[in-house]
Amino acid sequence: MGRNRVIDRQLVYCALEKFLEQKKMRRTPERYKVLDQAIEMTTHFKVDDLCEQLNANSFHVSKATVYNTVQLLVEAGILRRHRFAGQPSQYEIVVEQAQTNHHHLICRECGKVKEIKDAAIDNHLRQTVYRGFHPEYFTLYVYGVCSSCSRRKAKLSK
Amino acid sequence: MGRNRVIDRQLVYCALEKFLEQKKMRRTPERYKVLDQAIEMTTHFKVDDLCEQLNANSFHVSKATVYNTVQLLVEAGILRRHRFAGQPSQYEIVVEQAQTNHHHLICRECGKVKEIKDAAIDNHLRQTVYRGFHPEYFTLYVYGVCSSCSRRKAKLSK
DNA sequence: CTTAGTGCAAAGCGTTTGCATGCGA
DNA sequence: TCGCATGCAAACGCTTTGCACTAAG
User: Fold this and answer.
1) CATH class of the domain defined by A1-100
2) Nearest Cα residue to B93 out of B113, B71, B78
């Protein structure tokens, strides 16, 4: 993944801090560790990936807590959840919205997901006003067939 | 839902016909009945909704068959599946692509989903070319807070 | 006649929850 | 100290599957 991994740790931490305070929730080591690990992940990740990594770094957290925390981070706007067909939920850190948001190309054959950028759509959506609805963010999924699958299909039909 | 319910039954039937023939699958009454019922639904619907309606119209189908059929219809490009947080999968008929596709406004508070149209985005996406990826369709989800929820929240904070 | 499709119930799997214990405030 | 957060395992809800039976081609 060529995404630039310049995530401002301080900024993300503050976001969690703020959310916890506002909701009067506790600052537990688990919550910060999970966030830490989420920042380390270089692509979309599943809850299981997080658990695995945390355990590999010898920090024990129960899966239940990871599920809870991830949910909390989504509510806090720090993570975003994607549910692609036939796979468990995937999450990703929401990096600075100042830069262009990315969208997703999803292969209907193999389920592979690729990230792309499209500043034009981004700008358009940011400027769009909906009557009575206050948009916070958006996700765009483009479904189709990826290059390797279309190549494979072409071969088979020969 | 103000969606214009001018679904060309013949056209949808043909799509299923074609798909079944191509995949060398059988034309069973269940498959056509499920499709029939899907056409009747005026909004997004869940598998359970379909079963309920079919039973109400005294056509018995098992839930397993409805699940299988709906999956088949998605593969055939006749239905589209949406997975909104905290709710079972929802489906909708894919109407003529000649007209503008619709997108979704999803309330983060109450989960309500509203359909909207945006010809500009539609056109933009149709014209976009992705290297090695062949797009077939896309879904755009705009997350935020709906009017009634933001009103409710404003009241509470007084 | 062959074998894919169906119905039923049981299994599967990601996710949530209940309860006892631990720890942040 | 008080009560929220955690860990564990059990429950949950949507979805898929296995098997015997039915019916499409």
Assistant:
1) mainly alpha
2) B78
For strand C, is any atom closer than 7 Å to the CB of B27? no
What contacts B48, CB < 8 A, 6 or more positions away? B63, B88
Length of chain A: 158
pTM of the complete model? 0.90
Quote the tokens at residue B29: 């009454």
Those nucleotides of strand C lying less than 7 Å from any protein Cβ are: 4-10, 13-18, 23-25
Assign domain B101-158 to its CATH architecture.
Answer: 2-Layer Sandwich (3.30)
- Read off the pLDDT of residues B36-73 as tens digits, 9 standing for 90 and up: 999 999 899 999 999 999 999 999 999 999 999 999 99
CA B127 to chain centre: 23
Burial of A116 (0-12, 13-18, 19+ CB in 10 A): middle
Q: Is B57 on the interface with A (CB under 8 A)?
A: no
